[in-house]
Amino acid sequence: xxxxxxxxxxxxxxxxxxxxxxxxxxxxxxxxxxxxxxxxxxxxxxxxxxxxxxxxxxxxxxxxxxxxxxxxxxxxxxxxxxxxxxxxxxxxxxxxxxxxxxxxxxxxxxxxxxxxxxxxxxxxxxxxxxxxxxxxxxxxxxxxxxxxxxxxxxxxxxxxxxxxxxxxxxxxxxxxxxxxxxxxxxxxxxxxxxxxxxxxxxxxxxxxxxxxxxxxxxxxxxxxxxxxxxxxxxxxxxxxxxxxxxxxxxxxxxxxxxxxxxxxxxxxxxxxxxxxxxxxxxxxxxxxxxxxxxxxxxxxxxxxxxxxxxxxxxxxxxxxxxxxxxxxxxxxxxx
Amino acid sequence: xxxxxxxxxxxxxxxxxxxxxxxxxxxxxxxxxxxxxxxxxxxxxxxxxxxxxxxxxxxxxxxxxxxxxxxxxxxxxxxxxxxxxxxxxxxxxxxxxxxxxxxxxxxxxxxxxxxxxxxxxxxxxxxxxxxxxxxxxxxxxxxxxxxxxxxxxxxxxxxxxxxxxxxxxxxxxxxxxxxxxxxxxxxxxxxxxxxxxxxxxxxxxxxxxxxxxxxxxxxxxxxxxxxxxxxxxxxxxxxxxxxxxxxxxxxxxxxxxxxxxxxxxxxxxxxxxxxxxxxxxxxxxxxxxxxxxxxxxxxxxxxxxxxxxxxxxxxxxxxxxxxxxxxxxxxxxxx
Lengths: 335, 335
What we know:
The structure is a homodimer. Chain A is of the alpha/beta class. Chain A is 30% helix and 26% strand. Chain A has helices spanning 13-25, 74-86, 128-143, 162-176, 208-221, 255-263, 282-285, 318-334; strands spanning 2-8, 29-36, 44-47, 50-53, 55-56, 67-70, 90-93, 122-124, 146-154, 195-196, 227-231, 233-234, 240-249, 268-270, 273-274, 277-278, 291-298, 307-315. In chain A, the strands form 5 sheets. In chain A, strands 5-2-1-6-7-8 form a 6-stranded parallel beta sheet, sandwiched between helices. Chain A has a 6-stranded mixed beta sheet with strand order 11-9-13-18-17-14. In chain A, α2 links the parallel β6 and β7. The radius of gyration of chain A is 20 Å and the shape is globular. The N and C termini of chain A lie close together (11 Å). The model of chain A has no long low-confidence stretch (mean pLDDT 97). At the A-B interface, β9, α4, β10, β11 and β13 of A face β9, α4, β10, β11 and β13 of B.
């Protein structure tokens, strides 16, 4: 039980998910403080049935706050998370600002809950695509250390916020009505289209989203040498990411072993029916807590029996963001 | 110059593309015969500005036909292609009916044009995802033999025909209006969703589309042992497929070598600008003849320097189907 819980970025897509999950998960606190930019301050949002006025992040002190969920962009996290931590709060930060900071634990509760203990006021919530991949891949890695991961993502609009989800709907209406879609949030039309994730491309030719999947997975798994390559793609889906994951293990592994491990894994729901077909889909992952995993099969391109293919879908706003943060807070509450 | 060219399945999405390409590519023939099922017979379609009545495939003989483009499903190909061949036509068959038949050449003109010569009346047009991957991958394989391909696809509705494209639009309208989408052509909702390609799953856990990419590529490349794994996914895009392709070569290869080879490769357009970003997208591939290729980068998960990542988009109805067939006919015309 916390005294005061703050939600920074309360009016955003992830912020709203935090509020709904606080209710659903029964996160206990005497007081909830909703914070956002000056532009959104003054709005009223219900938390556990009680109306709360959103306050201006820039002018509201963090005194008395135990836990602060930050989801207001990297810039605001960099500026305000250290202030919140200095005021005594534990910040659970959904931005990328502190994820690779060696003094900040980066936590997926199903993977490395013990890392929460090492925090110095800030705990980082990993990138959404990273979390969704890590939840099913970790128990497999524990059973049979991975040598290599090749992942291709199918990422929903929600990863770019509420305005991106609205843009997908608006543009789709435009295309169906014969109007030219007008990109505002995304640099390219998203309606009936897809494009390489538009985060900046680094010197190696990978975009930031891809590099996050590589580096964050290594940090979370405590496997600094793990070979990972990723291709991140935005698709016209609203709020669940999917990923095609090709795995190479140290030793041969069978489809049945993988299915058994995943069936017992926390946070995973195996959805892998071949006839009639039923596999992970964004519309079924949306609103679900679990990462749906299916298409589990031996990789026929690896004749040594060390390869496995799988396909997953998970809610980008829940397990990919707010739910993972709430679970980190639950770990703190149990300490 | 041919005497008579027949288009079987003339009223379908690929059939219509054949008709438009005959005009655009200037394919010469004295006579065009349009054929379709009894249900579609009687319709009138223009070929090179002249109205043509669609005739019933079941009752129209193939006498005098030099080339017959078949795109009316595997069942009709199995029944009528041998009849057309027996009547003296060369069948260019877009179905999967004969692709793996050792007596039937399977041809991507940029890859194995010489195989056309071995035909015995039927030439198979490969699967759309296979063609689009083969066009850029072949010149790389020629320069530095491939050891392994890991591909994940992002396949448009058009691969399931005109009715699937209409279903995507109709369902999207439904979802935007708050109505529940009703799947008819696809087994699952396609609007704002994606799902594992719904072709039948075989004993190894791969679906038919994936197995086609594996086996057809091996046949076209004359590389029966080439290690390939594929994950095929249907996405809410209208008519261009995309693919994330991870390649492992026999020897180290640089990003620049790949870019140079692809820049000179027939049927390929390199679209690979990092800042501001411009990479292959379905909306730009739609209606184009070339396969767009970008996101070319060294695979950081392969420290030996033998790995390359790339991303492609290509028009499923053109190079993925009708254009490849027309190019095969052009090879025949030059013989």
